[in-house]
Design a protein that fits this description.
This protein has helices at 29-40, 87-97, and strands at residues 23-26, 43-47, 51-56, 59-65, 79-83, 113-119, 125-131. A 4-stranded mixed β-sheet has the order 1-4-3-2, with helices on one face. A 3-stranded mixed β-sheet has the order 5-7-6, with helices on one face. The chain is built from 2 helices and 7 strands. Helix content is 17%, strand content 31%. Strand 3 and strand 4 (59-65) form a beta hairpin. By secondary structure, it is of the alpha/beta class.
Amino acid sequence: MIFNLGGTNLDKMKAKFKKGIPVLPSSDIKRDVAWYKKYTGFEMKGGDEMYAVLRRENIDIHLQWHADTEEDPLLGGSVVRFWIQDVISLFEEFVENGALSKDKLRLNTAWGTNEFGLYDLNKNALFFFEDIKN
């Protein structure tokens, strides 16, 4: 046993992952909430000018404000992948919304997916894919 948890038998404890929620950096929460709604269909479910909770169906994205200074860097460059069903219809929705161009869809990749990706206004990469190996 690594930790003494007051007699708890760690061998009997089984952690279960429920959900992952990416927290992405933002330099302007209000602007970015509007972008996510317009281009990706994620709606704001709560927050303020420093933090926002966005949701589409059962997927959440959180945005956290950063000043983009040496003490509080924005950084950007986060990468999030969403495993979804029917990636082509979502791709068509995003093209229609003006989020990306028609040439961004990748079908039958070498790793067995159909997928596409785009960047938000803070250079965070969002990839949407479906597994086609099965």
